[in-house]
Each structure stands twice: as C-alpha cells, then as structure tokens.
Design goal:
The chain has 124 residues and is mainly beta. The chain contains no helices and 11 strands.
Amino acid sequence: VQLQASGGGLVQTGGSLRLSCAASGFALDNRHSAWFRQAPGKEREAVASISSRGLTYYTESVKGRFTISRDIANNMVYLQMNSLKFEDTAVYYCAASSGDGPYLWGLSAEYDKWGQGTLVTVSS
C-alpha cells in the first residue's frame, strides 16, 4: 500500500509541470486525494484536493493556475501546474484519506497515506 509521486523538476517562472501520483494496494475512487507542499523553512500546506466524488478544492494562491484531477482506471492523481511562480518552489506530496466521508480537505490529519514527495524548483 503506497503512493508514488513523480514529475517534479526545474522550471522557469511562467512554465508548467504536471505531477503524478500512482496509488498501489488500494483504490483511489473511494478516497479523498490531495497534494500538499512544503517549502524550505516553512510548514507543510495543502495545495489542492479532489474528493471521492470528484469535487475539487484549491488554496487561494494556486486558484486558476493549478488543476487537480484523477484517473480512476489507472489509479492516478495529477496536479497540473501552470504559470508557475518562484514561491511555488517546494517539495510536493500526494496524500490519500482512509475513507470517503466528510472531510476538511486542507487538514493533513485527514490523510493517512502519503507519497515520498517530489521537488519542484521554479527559477526566477
């Protein structure tokens, strides 16, 4: 049972990246999924979430630039990041909840499965 995040890298300001998160050992379709990030010297913050029903949520700073999606057939979650800014630089983590009930999408304690993180560096 694990999540495997990938897709990070170095990109210039204004560029795009797509992060991928592959789930194995469990199905994502009956769980909430999310992306968090942690910048150097800062606390981990929630970036986006997609509920078990497909509803999406975003932190204010990424609205209109990032899109979270999932591929149920392939048990994948994605984070498309456009118009990247220097302040988006962070290690990005995917996460999944244990159930599909009501949840506070931005609270890390709602998720019990975490990927290993993938580094996104945006050069200014």
